[in-house]
């Protein structure tokens, strides 16, 4: 073979591969070195050489001088720095992903726990459906009427609060809560348990039907449960009840404890054996157990009437609402969770409010209501003419109140002593439109806002 045939291939260095000795000299040469470049390898040779160089780089962990030729496309601007940073970035991404998964898992667990606490009252919904034709129709779109029932059952954990009649149901407290369609006000109207009303024929727990009767209001809950109570309220007021909630003693106690107690002021000390309550006079913060005794006490406080007890309950509920808003509970998940846990554990609702999402939407719609527009009052009542130990409605005041709520029109509340002063002034011939009382809000209008004896969540119990 002659020289014109070209240099024979080295068996240790296939065609297209640069000898190792030359590759070691190349990096040290200046970029403008006059040393001639090696022969241009074939495409197949370049591919094989690049692959071999890549493998050598992995094994030796060196830069350009480790052997083989790197193209500028394969050469990083700072290869050492890039390799050092990438592992940390990967670990940071993995850690962040792990934290997100843990947080999401914990949030889902808490949601399911609270959601599972709520008891759904499907029986009342089915019973009400049977009597749909006789129920009132909603008068105003987006307004909500919720019936809140405080269960006075003495069964189970509640047995220490009195005699257990086989776990029978009693409605110790019933409040009609009206949420205005614009969610700028909330009005809670207490219905006395001793109010004489017409109770319709209802279905009992053992599937029997009661007779229609005129008797005291809290008998409806004992006879036919929630459905019977709702139908009685709708017949009395003409207001359709959209939702209902039943809360027992323990739920109330736990909610007070969840907000670290509620502050009240007592003019006189309390020693009530029936309510298991003993408190000194003055300003103090009540825990859940003490708060329950305070709102249940009757015989040893004031005149011993149920009306005065309802007023005390209303003021305490207002203070509880104020405490929740002033401490940012509704906007602070860590503070809100204990309140929701306490509430949902002892809460029974209709299917429309039986999920945490439903309750959250309800609370969210109310959180911007000013505390002075969260109002509490008792339906206008007086001693029943045939039995002073029972109550009856005062007309036309009660009907006017129900009409205002039914049509989603405003009502106002004022302390009882201010209303009495206004009545005295009216009797003396003074113009009530010039006395500066709360009922003057609409005095320039032909239909002024009616004012009732009551309180708001903004009232300070220590300034009463």
User: Major beta sheet, specifics?
Assistant: 9 strands, mixed
The amount of helix comes to: 25-40%
Sketch the topology as an H/E string, one letter per element: HHHEHEEEEEHEHEEEEHHHEHEEEHEHE
- Poorly predicted spans: 1-41, 52-67, 161-167, 435-445
Report the C-alpha radius of gyration, rounded. Answer: 39 Å
Q: What structural class do you assign from the helix and strand content? A: alpha/beta
The number of helical runs is 12
Q: How many strand units?
A: 17
* SS strand fraction: 15-25%
Average pLDDT for all residues: 76
The rough form would be described as globular
Which strand order do you get reading across the main beta sheet? 1-12-7-2-3-4-13-17-16
- What distance separates the N and C termini? 122 Å
Defining key terms:
single chain; alpha/beta; 12 helices; 38% helix; disordered N terminus
Quick structural gist:
With 464 residues, the protein is of the alpha/beta class.
Describe this entry's structure for a reader.
By secondary structure, the chain is of the alpha/beta class. It is built from twelve helices and 17 strands. It has helices at residues 20-25, 43-60, 79-117, 122-130, 219-237, 249-258, 288-296, 306-326, 333-345, 356-366, 397-406, 416-427, and strands at residues 119-120, 144-151, 171-179, 186-190, 196-199, 213-216, 243-247, 262-266, 270-272, 277-279, 282-286, 347-349, 374-378, 381-384, 387-393, 412-414, 451-456. Helix 12 (416-427) links the parallel strand 16 and strand 17. Helix 3 (79-117) runs parallel beside helix 9 (333-345), helix 4 (122-130) crosses helix 5 and helix 6 (249-258) packs antiparallel against helix 9. The longest helix is centred in the N-terminal third of the chain and has 39 residues, at 79-117. The model is unreliable at 1-41, 52-67, 161-167 and 435-445 (pLDDT under 50).
């Amino acid at each position: 073979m002659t020289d014109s045939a070209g240099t024979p291939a080295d068996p240790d260095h296939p065609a297209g591969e640069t000898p190792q000795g030359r590759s070691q000299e190349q990096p040290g040469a200046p970029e403008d070195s006059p040393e001639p470049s090696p022969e241009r390898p074939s495409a197949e040779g370049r591919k094989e050489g690049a692959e071999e160089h890549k493998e050598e780089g992995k094994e030796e962990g060196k830069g350009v001088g480790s052997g083989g030729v790197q193209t500028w496309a394969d050469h990083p601007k700072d290869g050492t720095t890039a390799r050092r940073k990438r592992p940390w970035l990967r670990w940071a991404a993995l850690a962040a992903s792990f934290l997100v998964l843990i947080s999401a898992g914990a949030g889902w667990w808490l949601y399911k726990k609270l959601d599972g606490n709520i008891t759904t009252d499907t029986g009342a919904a089915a019973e009400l459906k049977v009597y749909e034709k006789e129920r009132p129709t909603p008068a105003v779109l987006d307004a909500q009427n919720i019936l809140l029932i405080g269960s006075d059952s003495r069964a189970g954990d509640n047995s220490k609060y009195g005699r257990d009649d086989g776990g029978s149901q009693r409605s110790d407290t019933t409040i009609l809560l009206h949420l205005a369609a614009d969610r700028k006000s909330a009005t809670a109207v207490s219905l006395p348990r001793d109010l004489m009303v017409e109770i319709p024929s209802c279905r009992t727990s053992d599937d029997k039907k009661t007779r229609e009767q005129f008797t005291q209001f809290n008998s409806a809950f004992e006879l036919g449960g929630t459905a019977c109570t709702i139908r009685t309220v709708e017949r009395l007021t003409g207001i359709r009840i959209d939702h209902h909630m039943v809360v027992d003693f323990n739920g109330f106690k736990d909610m007070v404890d969840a907000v670290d107690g509620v502050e009240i002021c007592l003019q006189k000390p309390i020693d009530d054996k029936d309510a298991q309550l003993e408190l000194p006079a003055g300003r103090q913060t009540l825990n859940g157990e003490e708060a329950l005794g305070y709102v249940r006490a009757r015989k040893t406080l004031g005149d011993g009437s149920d009306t005065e007890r309802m007023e005390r309950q209303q003021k305490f509920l207002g203070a509880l609402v104020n405490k929740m808003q002033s401490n940012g509970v509704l906007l602070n998940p860590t503070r809100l969770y204990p309140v929701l846990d306490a509430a949902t554990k002892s809460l029974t609702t209709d299917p429309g409010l039986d999920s945490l999402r439903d309750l959250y939407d309800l609370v969210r719609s109310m959180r911007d209501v000013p505390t002075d527009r969260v109002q509490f009052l008792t339906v206008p009542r007086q001693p029943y003419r045939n039995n002073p130990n029972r109550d009856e409605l005062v007309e036309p005041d009660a009907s006017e109140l129900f009409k205002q709520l039914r049509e989603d029109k405003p009502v106002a509340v004022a302390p009882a002593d201010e209303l009495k002063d206004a009545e005295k002034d009216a009797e003396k011939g003074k113009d009530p439109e010039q006395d500066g009382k709360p009922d003057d809000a609409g005095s320039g209008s032909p239909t002024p806002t009616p004012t009732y004896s009551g309180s708001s969540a903004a009232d300070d119990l220590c300034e009463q």
